[in-house]
Amino acid sequence: MQDKFLASEYPQSAPEQAGFHIIPVPLEQSVSYGGGTVKGPQALLAASHQLEAWECGFAPGESGFFTAQAVDCAGPITDTLDRIEAAVAHAIACEAVPVVLGGEHTVTLGALRALARQAEKTGEPFGVVQFDAHADLRPQYEGSPFSHASVMYRAVADLGLPLTQFAVRDFCREEAEIRKKFNVTHYDAYFLARVGLPELPLPEDFPKNIYITFDVDGLDSSIMPATGTPSPGGINWREAQYMLERCVAGRRVVGLDVVELAPIEGLHHADFTAAKLTHLIMGLAHDANQKEAQS
Fold first, then answer.
1. 257 annotated to a ligand binding site
2. Binding residue per annotation — 72?
3. pTM for the complete prediction?
4. Comparing C-alpha atoms, which of 110, 169, 114, 162 is closest to residue 136?
5. Which end of the chain is more exposed for a tag (fewer CB within 10 A), N or C?
6. 217 known ligand binder
7. Which has the higher per-residue pLDDT, 294 or 165?
8. Is Transferase tagged as a keyword (predicted)?
9. Where are the domains of the chain?
10. 170 is in an annotated binding site
């Protein structure tokens, strides 16, 4: 039986009355090192029962949580992406913020497609804010254009979305060139450690509406070992919190995801960290969106 996000603190809201739609997507098709992302959403949901109702003074659950049924990830990846897109489109129709729980990073593409269609209707563009150890800008990887290593290339090349990256530390020469081609803003892990983060990290012309995608391997492997490619040299918890705060300031969060959790049996802290991270981003999003609505 599927858990509901933070059901220990909040009753499940009806879809039309929830401020957030939590959408589990247990996808694992193109992982290229360690596996286990198929179990990530359920582990995160189970760990969420140990969270407090408040996170850093925010209580996003007061706006209502609706945890949708897990997206069916059987069959071709194109079909799975269609189903993710439909689930996110339903959240948008309910005027809720979609929160996608992966699963491998490919799940983000389905969400971005739904939001891109909405942006076409409203005329309000959005940009993508990515936290990740990897650039994910390969046109294809291991023969697939829908690999987890290609999801951000699909975002910038196919959907034409502005992109800003944080904490990247593992990428190839081709991805460095693609960054230049598509004008991708980036604050790589080495830069952040040596120079630090500007007060206003997003470019001046970056869209006011943003989608946050957080691959948990963006965090340092010492605090997040439960992921397919745990990489040293990542950001710590407080750094992630500070960067997220700076990114959402004065903006509207139209959606978010937390992906690539690959639970390790008996290692509770990683699952809890992923759940706490999800709750934190929702809290920051709820606060930012309220301030934007009142301005």
1. no
2. no
3. 0.97
4. 169
5. N
6. yes
7. 165
8. no
9. 13-292
10. no
